[in-house]
Amino acid sequence: QVHLVESGGGLVKPGGSLRLSCAASGFAFSDFYMTWIRQSPSKGLEWVSYISSSGSIVYYADSVKGRFTISRDNTKKSLYLQMNSLTAEDTAVYYCAGPFRGSSSYWGQGTLVTVSS
Amino acid sequence: DVVMTQSPLSLPVTLGQPASISCRSSQRLVYSDGNTYLNWFQQRPGQPPRRLIYQVSNRDSGVPDRFSGSGSGTDFTLKISRVEAEDVGIYYCMQGTHWPPLTFGGGTKVEIK
After folding, report:
1. How many alpha carbons fall within 13 Å on the CB side of residue A113?
2. How does pLDDT run across A14-40, given as a tens digit for each residue?
3. Given an 8 Å threshold on Cβ–Cβ distance, is B49 in contact with A35?
């Protein structure tokens, strides 16, 4: 059975940092690109970042470029999101998910990030 | 960026009756490989999104056949042939053709009358 389990969310002050993790199981993690997607009441579902299966290609939404870093460790079947210089606009539930084009697609349960003083 | 526009915003439906949700994209979603990467997701209350349909009309594993997707170009539709109580939630379309960025529609809330 496929599982994507996010962790690392929590309450952080503006300007602070958090590192999110996503542990994958039940599928060939290293074969697939992965993404981080966030959801907030004000912005709905928003794509945040993409990483290729090997980790050599990454993309970011303009709203997080220069502040967030996506990475993966295929030996550990894990996906990460390092988030720096956080603002209230980054408050959301963060999901790891992917891929989206073919017949296989997976989505985690999400981890809540709250940025507040 | 491709803008995805869904309608209606809210859809009250009687149990057993059909429901239809529209999704329009600001650009044609045919990719250079000939496929159209338009997905539909369902989000039940308190749950993460779950993909129902990929490439316009293909149902994901385990998705009941009362759900169907259709469309082409810039106009797409998700239909529920007979709404059941478990179908309550918010439905989103998402394009995976012209990315980054992936973009989502604003959502359609399906509720029982």
Report:
1. 33
2. 999 999 999 999 999 999 999 999 999
3. no
